[in-house]
């Protein structure tokens, strides 16, 4: 059998390979053009998905500082207190209005003290607890009850103390959980079990004390305290208006008494000599006067 020539076969193989390569390149170029057109004509594509994902990440990165600030604000634990001093017409009416203002805002009266001064004037102090978010509104309403003599507002951030308390409380809970697991298995010796029970009791007491402290902080943050002093106008002549005069007279009485005593001593010492002088004067006055001779004329 006669073999075909080698050269035509090689030429055929090269032609087929070139045709296949051209077809592959044509399809790749068409696909690339289609993807480019889809990226710009609004149709969904992988390129657009990548862009949208990048924009979302950019938005999230841009919003992250605000989220950090919001988280910081949420972690702040502020305890706010205020003190007011008001002069009112009648204590009873103003105290009732103050209690009604606080009750309308969700607060309550925690403590009240009242005393009666001279002239049937009343003076009292009210301790009010109001929700923290209503603090400013309640303060403005209370200031309108009378003439403001003085006011002070204080704010304390207990966020650090609260975070430390949370950390210690979480550690106590973990210790309590491990001790309970140890006692549940009871694989140790009796002495170790008794020691674990004793330690568990101590940990539970400390955990309950920390929880009570946390509840106290929560209540202090949730409810602000306003102490208001209400007093009626004082009388023009007060009871103690003459107190300085009485004190001066009281201190002057010993001096007056000493002066009178010295005068009595002086009179007693001089009285005999005064009486003697008076007697001699009377004696010489009673003697008759001698006649004066009148000269005669010669």
Tell me how many strands there are: 5
- Structural class computed from helices and strand pairing: alpha+beta
Shape: elongated
CATH topology of the domain at 78-157: Alpha-Beta Plaits
Largest sheet: 5 strands, mixed
Helicity level: 55-70%
CATH class of the domain at 78-157: Alpha Beta
**Strand coverage percent:** 15-25%
Ends distance: 235 Å
CATH architecture of the domain at 78-157: 2-Layer Sandwich
Q: Nearest-angstrom radius of gyration?
A: 54 Å
Q: In DSSP terms, counting alpha (H) and pi (I) runs of 4 or more, how many helices? A: 7
List key phrases describing it.
alpha+beta; 5-stranded mixed beta sheet; 298 residues; single chain; disordered N terminus; Alpha-Beta Plaits
Question: What does the model show?
Answer:
The protein is an alpha+beta fold. Among the domains are: 78-157, 2-Layer Sandwich (Alpha-Beta Plaits); 160-220. The protein contains seven helices and five strands, in the order H-H-E-H-E-E-H-E-H-H-E-H. The protein has helices spanning 6-40, 46-75, 91-104, 135-143, 159-185, 190-222, 243-286; strands spanning 78-87, 108-117, 121-131, 147-157, 223-231. It has a five-stranded mixed beta sheet with strand order 2-3-5-1-4. The longest helix has 44 residues, at 243-286.
